[in-house]
Amino acid sequence: MCGIVAYVGNKEAYSLILKGLKRLEYRGYDSSGVALLENGELNIYKKKGKVSELEAGLAGKELHATIGIGHTRWATHGEPNDVNAHPHFSNNRKLAVVHNGIIENYAAIKKNLISKGHTFQSETDTEVLIHFIEDIQAETGDSLESAVKLALKEVVGAYAIVVMSVDQPGQLIAARKGSPLVIGIGEEEYFFASDATPIIAYTKNVVYLDDYEVAVVRDGKLSIQNLDNTETIPYIQKLEMELEAIEKGGYDHFMIKEIFEQPRSIADSMRGRLRSSDSHLQLGGLSNHLDKLAQAERIVIVACGTSWHAGLVAEYLFEELARINVEVEYASEFRYRNPVIKENDIVIAISQSGETADTLAAIELAKSKGATIFGVCNVVGSSIARATHAGAYTHAGPEIGVASTKAFTAQVTVLTLIALATAKQKGTISEEVFRQLLTELENIPDKVEKVFENASKIKEIAFIFTYARNFIYLGRGLNFPVALEGALKLKEISYIHAEGYPAAEMKHGPIALIDEDMPVVFLATKDSSYEKIVSNIQEVKARKGRVIAIVTEGDTLIPGMVDFVIEVPETHEILTPLVSVIPLQLLSYYIAVMRGRNVDQPRNLAKSVTVE
Ligand code: M6R
User: Is 377 labeled as catalytic in the residue annotation?
Assistant: First the structure.
């Protein structure tokens, strides 16, 4: 969602901020803007649409400043237009702010400010916040830093903000609660951003701001205090991310780059954790908690979107391997119920970004009920990773395409490792099966590579179905969540309506949709449901549905029954999703490209959904 980039130092702030905003485009947004201090004047430039439109509008202008703040806005309060775009001025136009998050009590604050004579240009909660800061400063006569702290004590909601003032030309003030903010520390320069991607080209030294912390850069020095003025020593971390990981590297889109990265990202998610030769399996972050997992009466998984699908795969894994009852919850539903959480329940939160607002809120709720929370996150140092008691990173590397691909397979891999480690601890798995599964996990990257040999065939199938209006995806067992994931991938990037179902559910309703115009994707790999899925295919073919079947290499039965087959290598049934999801990712990608969609930044979507 919204993105922040701010800079103070010796470089040209405008081009640096603009580059940073482009790095944040993947988060999803609908307008952008910058505020610059140029020759003692605080100027704001902003525009609806892409950063390139802002850039085009400013082309030819001499914009010289060494301090500035920039923003990409994903509209919440007020439609996406030039006026609602950030940054926003205070009433006297001496202060400017960029803000991610939502100020829930903005209406009451605004009413009070209007009664004091403030006038507002936009419909945003953000403009109210900066007017409020100005008002507090005027009333108290305190420094801007104090006014920011006092204002933040009054507001309800979530925020990451950066404030600048025309009166303090070398000063930036930033704060966060519930919305991420990273500070990059360079040579006599500082960077602020919503994530590390705009910073990595300049410095690897970063500080992750914590909730209720206020960072101030003044006279070239960084200090961090909480809202009650208690000083904390900035904890400087080294970024492990490399620049090429956030660039397209010759691919047309990040999504296809990330699909093809999966042999490596799956291997990375296992690296140093398993060795089949001596049955070694260890997840550093969880090794002290395996007893707790093994003794759990129940595991509750909370997640959203693709991460929720990975949770559904994990349900099968934990039940099958470790014989633990699992419930998989949409975080957004869980947080607004009054869920029954018992002391020896374990909650596992799954999130690529580690910033999803609903998942974060579900964690806080479960925590308040005394549950132990483990996290499976991709982004190191993210809010969810920090809110959980322990966890395992997926190490898939930065995922820039909005449609999650390599993060899903990395999540499934790590969840498989956790389920296996739990089963071993609990004694619910034999040595032989344990070792067999470790060996097969090591083979998965090669098997995924093998699926890519079918890429041109998948492209041909995509061409045939480019203008389909609907799709149905069907699977059973571990392939049911894969069917859901395939349908989600297709709808989010191609805007074709798609539904995923357990194959046997089809006859309880969706079968009415089947006719010669309905493409039906079957996950029909050789597993314990194979005979059943063959019957389901026959039911669809009897009604003239057009079937694309994902089958195991060497299958001779299904190719004779269906319209198109895509083969995937044989693997252990438990690991099937790791190979069967790959053709579905490719199919969605090629269809979306052929329809001319903006694959990496589909309409209305955001990469990290930081509002509920
Ligand atoms: O960052 P998270 O894994 O918590 O995000 C959850 C969903 O927003 C995300 O998976 C979303 O569904 C993706 N667009 C799917 O491709």
Answer: no
